[in-house]
Amino acid sequence: MSDNQFDLPTAPLDRRRALQLLGLTGAVAAASPLALAQTTPAAAPAAPTAPQNGNGFYRQKIGGMTVTVLSDGTAPLAALLPTWGANPDRQAEFAATLAEYHVAATNTVNHFNPTIIETGSNRILIDTGRGGTAGQMLANIRRAGIDPATIDTVFITHGHGDHIGGLTTAGQPTFPQARHVMGAAEFQFWTTQANPNAAVQANLIGLRDRFTLIQPGAEIVPGLTAILTPGHTLNHLSVRAQSGDAGLMVFGDAAGHFLLSLKHRGAYVGFDTDGALAARTRQRLFDQVTTEGLWVTGYHFPFHALGHIRRMIGGAYEYEPTVWNWS
Ligand SMILES: [Zn+2]
Description:
The protein is α+β, with helices and mostly antiparallel strands and 327 residues long. It has two domains: 1-48, no CATH class; 57-321, Ribonuclease Z/Hydroxyacylglutathione hydrolase-like (Metallo-beta-lactamase, Chain A, 4-Layer Sandwich), CATH 3.60.15.10. Helices cover 24% and strands 24% of the residues. It has ten helices and 18 strands. The chain has helices spanning 15-22, 25-31, 33-38, 91-100, 137-143, 161-164, 184-191, 198-205, 260-263, 275-292, and strands spanning 57-62, 65-70, 74-76, 109-111, 115-118, 123-126, 153-156, 168-169, 172-173, 179-183, 211-214, 219-221, 224-228, 237-243, 246-252, 295-298, 306-311, 317-321. β5 (115-118) and β6 form a beta hairpin. It is globular, with a radius of gyration of 22 Å. The chain starts with 14 loop residues before the first helix and ends in a 6-residue tail after the last strand. The model is unreliable at 1-39 (pLDDT under 50). Bound molecules: zinc ion (ZN). Zinc ion binds at residues 160, 162-163, 253, 299-300. The site of zinc ion (ZN) has 6 residues, from α6.
């Protein structure tokens, strides 16, 4: 890795692009044979010369770590209640919260936010999006200026298709150089089903030999620890990353809905395998990240999906998105 703060290419603006920005292209080219020579050939519009934060990814430092949240795009949630299908007896209460926070209750979308953590020693991708034609993660890794071949570790929080789908591309491993890491119990659960779904078949069973299977509490790479956060799936693992005094909890799907799961104790979402267990895990996690002042990222939180959790009166919590910290 270079000394550059974010390890990005730093190509300067070319002359023609600079002139375009100044609105001078035509005048200078007409007036100066030298300028004319320098602008030939000049048919194609100049592409951005460096990754632009927010364009499919969001990157900032946390302690000595560089954290890049990648958008895998969005998907409509038209078939589900705006509360993600949970707690049918509490819909009026949830609807009031959505209205209070100006969150749309119809035509909503789901976000998917894999994350890359660069520790200085390792470059780790946590979850991989949906893959296939819908998945935007791989394009956005490149847009972030990161060569996918340089990712040395891929960690999977749980076996749902929107987290494992990007492990393969057109039937081939997307990250052939990377050590693949997943919780042993979670991997076993999905790969021993009588009729594994297509995503499991392609991305877990098909890549079985690449996986290192770990136990809760294990170190994934130095500085990153797997944390048992059951309920969304029964063996779901989140990731605790630490660098000096700064810590980050990568929730995966353990945090649920970015507003309702925080605001309403006991709330679960329709995707949870065991809603009551998921809700208890959430309370423990939210208490931990607020007590310890950790950064958090939630896989289905609205992009850029990185911030803190704030403790409110009455046992409620709120998500506080980061305000574009650059250093
Ligand atoms: Zn998910």
